[in-house]
UniProtKB/TrEMBL annotation:
Gene3D superfamilies per the UniProt record, alphabetical: ABC transporter involved in vitamin B12 uptake, BtuC
Full protein name: Metal ABC transporter permease
Keyword flag Transmembrane: yes
Lineage, uppermost ranks: Bacteria, Pseudomonadati, Pseudomonadota, Gammaproteobacteria, Oceanospirillales
Membrane spanning residue stretches: 6-29, 36-55, 91-109, 156-174, 248-268, 274-294
Amino acid sequence: MSDFMVFSLVPLTVAVIICMTCALLGNFLVLRRQSLIGDAISHVALPGIVVSFLLTGTLASTAMMLGAGASALVTVAMIELIRRLGRVEISAAMGVTFTSLFAVGVLLLEWHQASGVHLDVEHALYGNLESLIWFDGTGPAALFDPAALADLPPQLARVAWVGLVVVIFVAVFRRHLILGSFDPDFAASVRAHPALVDLLLVTMVAVAAIAAFEAVGSIIVIAMFICPAAAARLMTNRLRAQIAWSQLFAVVSAVLGYLLAGQGLGWLGFEISVSAAGTIATLAGLILLLACLWGPHRHRTGVAASP
């Protein structure tokens, strides 16, 4: 019990919160056919975070947010510039911009050799879940000890606050999100402000992705924006049930993925462990594959559903 609380409680909790948060937003991205927005944001955030660290010398959340925000502005300008000068479709301009900026971020990481401060390619891609150790969590009594709770890794509080903000956002704008997802024209006609809600949704996706970046890396964030919601979409034709399914798939992916990463190969006789974030993302993909093969609504060609 003591070892679990010290080494696994915080990483597992962070993984569950991030997976559920991304899956909740992912439901509306899937319905709007905008699933790759999470991928795009994760790509363009990396160079902004790296440049922010190089300028400030800190990985504080405020600096990371500002760097990622500046990177997003540069991204919008680059997409428009490429579209106009190259006279290409916006999807092509976005593809070139996203991949180029992500490559720039990776090159900056390698060039400045920032691994000594936990900002390197491995942490950027696969996250840093295993290092979220709660040294004062030596027993159940630590859960009620203010001094021990003060020593919790700061990533836990950060992702918890982001998860709470996302839940409040979905609860407050639920009607607007539903109308904008199923019929944007009708949403505009009843003054549901679909353009504003779209902007807020993308903002929430960006906030969730950036907050999760340091702890879980970009791979798991991208997977969780897509896989649980897409799998849930194949299980039901009602939005409430879809959200419930996506949350279940997110929790299963996080818990089983973390367990298999640490113990799975040991059960097979190999005394090694693998990346928790990578295993969680892989398990989410397998769940989506199973839903594609045996989901009740796997033969549906459209995205229509009932609220």
